[in-house]
Amino acid sequence: MRIEIKDKRAVWKYTALITAIATFAATGVVGALMAVIPGMHWLIWLWGVSIALFIPLLIAPPCAYFVLSIVRMLQETIEKVDSQIRFDPLTGILNRNHFLDSVRGREASGVLMIADADHFKTINDTYGHAGGDEVLRILANTLKQSVGNQGIVGR
């Protein structure tokens, strides 16, 4: 089972859940253990259960919140790194390695189309690198729209 903590709301939700579990477990165990002791006055039992209730309420929320916040930051970092590893930062399409891995992972039948931006050096020389970058973005978006969800586009 994998728990994804995508936002602060999830951190608070799981903090409350962990606190509830810790509280019920502690009070249940202490209450049951003290109940089997013969001749125990009910007031002593109540004090013991109260202490068992108070300690998890004091410790669990800050500890759980801290750990879950770190888990959330780690998950966000992993997603960002994964995205930077897989996708070309300029065009947003798969980079060469992940494109080739995706092609290899597909069934044997299909179509492979290779597009070459003819005279691209002329575009860069005439309009500068910013103009060339914009042409590459437009070309990548056009190809992504053309293949839809069934195809993959890479650079």
Question: What is this structure, in a nutshell?
Answer:
The protein is mainly alpha-helical and 155 residues long.
Indicate the overall shape.
Answer: elongated
pLDDT < 50 stretches: none
Helix content: over 70%
Write down how many β-strands occur, each being a DSSP E stretch of 2 or more residues: 0
Domain module count? 2
Quote the average pLDDT.
89
Euclidean distance between termini CA atoms: 35 Å
Number of helices: 4
Describe the structure.
By secondary structure, this protein is mainly alpha-helical. It folds into two domains: 8-85; 96-147, no CATH class. The protein contains four helices and no strands. It has helices spanning 8-35, 42-86, 96-104, 120-147. Helix 1 runs antiparallel to helix 2. The longest helix is centred in the middle third of the chain and has 45 residues, at 42-86.
